[in-house]
Amino acid sequence: MQHLTRPMSLDGHDVTVTASLGVALYPADGDSLEVLVRHADIAMYAAKDSGRNALRFFSTDLRERLSEHLLLERELRRALSEEGGPELHLAYQPQIDLRSGAVVGVEALLRWQHPTLGSIAPDRFIPVAEQCGLIEAVDRWVLRRSVEQLQQWDAQGLAPLRVAVNISAQHIGRADFLPQLEQTLCHAGPLAQRIELEITESMLMQGQAELRERLLALTRLGPTLALDDFGTGYSNLGYLKRLPLDKLKVDRSFVTDLPGQPEDEALVRAIVSMAHDLGLQVLAEGVETAAQRDFLCQLGCDLMQGWLEARAMRPEALEAWLRQRSSMSVS
Ligand code: C2E
Ligand code: MG
Ligand code: MG
Question: What global pTM score does this model have?
Answer without folding.
Answer: 0.86
